[in-house]
Amino acid sequence: MLFTIGYEGATQAALLDALRRNKIALLVDVRAISASRKPGFSKRQLAAALDENGIGYLHLQKLGTPAEGRQAARAGDTRTLWRVYEKHLKTHDAREAMDELAALVAGGRRICLLCFERDVDHCHRRRIAEMIHERTGIRVRNIEPDIA
Question: pLDDT by residue (tens digit) across 103-142?
């Protein structure tokens, strides 16, 4: 199974708890920008906390949403978000990153995709998970950390 999670409204501790409960071995960060104004969610802080909990970390930046798509998402314009993201997924870099993710998933580890948005239906990680499902047949499940 492939898992997805969004940390919006959660603390780092709540995120870690949700990952441990679901026995996640590797967290794959699919944010274009791995910095966060939310304490504990910038790349270095998050990777260190995951390591302390026996969970691996990988940042697949090329699967992140381009700036135009992020602006559309902030404005609530999901139609533009999906248009921009679908175009981005056709780029060489995004295809390579998707191939890397598919190979990891095929390896059988419990993997979880991470982005900010709590609602998976408003996040590009949903599309990534759908594509991995289409390629591998693996089931997808969104998990939600407790809200602070």
Answer: 999 999 999 999 999 999 889 999 999 999 999 999 999 9
DSSP 8-state symbol, 142: E
Q: Are 112 and 141 in contact (CB under 8 A)?
A: no
d(CA 88, CA 147): 31
Instruction: List the domains of the chain with CATH numbers.
Output: 2-143 (3.90.190.10)
Please say whether the beta carbons of 113 and 5 come within 8 A: yes
CB atoms near residue 41 (< 10 Å): 22
DSSP H or E run through 5: strand 2-6
Which residues of the chain are modeled with pLDDT < 50?
none
Residue 82 DSSP SS3: helix
CB burial class (10 A; 0-12, 13-18, 19+) of residue 25?
middle
pLDDT at 74: 87
| Three-state DSSP state, 28 | strand
CA 83 to chain centre: 19
Instruction: Using a pLDDT cut of 90, give the percent of the chain over it.
Output: 93
- Beta-bridge partners for 6: 115
Instruction: Note the Cα 40 to chain centre separation in Å.
Output: 16
- The first and second tokens of residue 70, run together, are 């992020």
